Amino acid sequence: MNRAKLISFHHGACVPLTELPCLDFPTFRESLLEEVAGDARIASFFGHPDADGVNLYAVLAHDWQGKLALLHTRVQNSFPSLTPECPQLHLFERELAEQYGLRPEGHPWLKPVRFHQNWIAAADIWGRDPDLHPIPGDMDFYQVAGEEVHEVAVGPVHAGVIEPGHFRFQCHGEKVMNLEISLGFQHRGIEQMLIGGPHPASIYQLEAAAGDTSIGHTIAYSQVLESLSTVEPSPRAYAVRAIALELERLANHVGDIGAMTGDVGYLPTSSFCGRLRGDYLNLMADLCGSRFGRGLVRPGGVQFDLNPELVDKLLQRLSVLETETRGAIELSFDSPSVLARFEGTGVLSIDAAEELGLVGVVARASGLMRDARLHHPLGGRQKLFDAPIIETDGDVFARGNVRRREIYASHRMIREALQSLQSGENRIPLGPLAPDSLAVSLCEGWRGEVVHVGLTDGQGQLARYKIVDPSFHNWAGMTMVLRGEQISDFPLCNKSFNLSYCGFDL
Amino acid sequence: MLHILSERLRQGHRTGKFPQQEPTLSERFRGLPQITPNLDQQQQSAAVASCPFAAVQSVAGQLQIDVGRCLFCADCPVAELGALEFSHDYRLATRSRDDLLLGDETYRLAEKLNKRMLKLFGRSLKLRQLSAGGCNACEADLNVLGTLVFDLGRFGIQFVASPRHADGIMVTGPVTENMRSALLDTYAAIPEPKLVIASGACAIGGGPFRDSPETNNGIGDLLPVDLYIPGCPPHPYTALDGLLRLLNRR
Ligand code: SF4
Ligand code: SF4
To answer: What is the DSSP letter of B154?
Structure first.
């Protein structure tokens, strides 16, 4: 191992950029591939331009060691693509091509990701007019030709109350041969708006980065700033964050099980869960006034406290909701007609999940133990989380069952956290951010791992802020499971993933 | 089957009594902001400068909040300066953009549609929801209106899949560059006469993404808006109240 080339550190550390060697590309490449062939996976990979080219940073996660590692190189104009050997980089490289006009030579699937103009004055590698905003979905789609082969195009506007995205199916009769997804419709330019910050508006933009994961993203953002200014929130603040994170998981997981059962026409669970989801959102509102946790998590801690009356109220409500949730969920998991539709549908193999670098519920349902709560906890949360949940079948049932079991685990975690709250400051003021430094933060949101990286300039302002929502990795898994499936199973598969559009598009 | 029935009994009847009965909202809920009266010019300038989303202005010596732009922030610096306070009032929807600008007068809540439109839509309103950069919180809390608790269908209101079947469009999100033409196309596909509803701070004025080069600061000048529903995201009762006012049900 090229250990000398790597900076290895723990989650929460602030890494001075001067300690990070800039490797020549061949060494960078070799070290990265070696790490990935070992036990590392790519948590983040991004560029930051300077006068001499574009700096590339790879953040590697060694989950079972609880460690992170960093690799750094600098490239100009193009570089030999790593994707053929390391498929989990496929989208990260496409992103670099779109943002900085860097061509990953030999990339097998080089298409735009979000359809925005270049971030720097570089030639567009797809030859589009630099003065015009690109047209979303304007790319060459993979096509299958032949008799009786037909193409189905869906979106950007879908049938329900749901975010936009474009899906292209290549079908033979009912059977899907290939699905390609083109996103970017929700692109709001968040990473660009964060540059030069932290600005007063930044935290609100992060709360809405993926609005159903406000807690996940604000925790990740706060951790980055805390690491960069070496401030440690109180155990109490950590506990309130953990409670909110689990409440967010409960609301979404319960909603997802409702949606999945609704999709197979099992209305009792679907309507009970729809109501229960709202009740969990209301618990969040009891905590901070917002059903989506807006305003709760702030750098340095949290903004709302739990007084003893509220603790009692939450405990009471939780025990009622727990019984009702179990009742609603177990009904469907006992029902042969539901199981018949869930089992064996939309199978994702562990190898595909691993190669594509998938995370969260989807990865765990395919047998990959990836959970930042277990591997990369901050602030003594490890004690709270000691029962990682894993399934191995990789089908719709497995994804539902991971959620079901996580729901029950979250009930327990919230109860324990409420019963063992320590006293302490809600929020500790942040100092200035360390200049020329980098911090990485991971937070296991309800969909999976949210990774934020903050990089400061000489004045301690954010020069680059990189966000990886779990959906960024996982949409690729969604396209994999559709291969060979009936197109009519698409809605069910899609609900079993339930990925974020804006989290991908940011 | 017996399991289903017994679970059904335990889960009970859940549809709320709204609008006959006012909803109970969480104690920490932040509703209609109220400007502190008689602030001097210096206090007003400080308040204007402190809001990151340009939701506060000083107009003719009177501090004014743009309820449409406001995100109802828990850590509102304007409130910290003592220049405003959040009430518990969840009713926020208005018919015109100007009505969202609140100084020291009373807030003008949405009025009902005109006679002709009421005759057409009063008992059956089908809406096409369109997310144009919405963060999925606005969308989720509109979806919630379809659950047992709110049961939107009992008011004759329904979200439909095809714009051809719709009487109006309900937009969320700041209108990203990448969704602008899809928004206009969807609007064009709805038969006349039609309604436009802007739901959430983003759709009204760009919300937290105000002035991003990738967004359009909301529907603004793109479409004629009939109903504004403020909030980030609007509480489901705020949205329901607005819809019912429009249909003369409140
Ligand atoms: S709540 Fe937020 S948006 Fe509204 S006035 Fe205060 S700071 Fe501005
Ligand atoms: S108004 Fe707020 S909740 Fe609604 S889409 Fe915008 S950021 Fe999200």
So the answer is: G
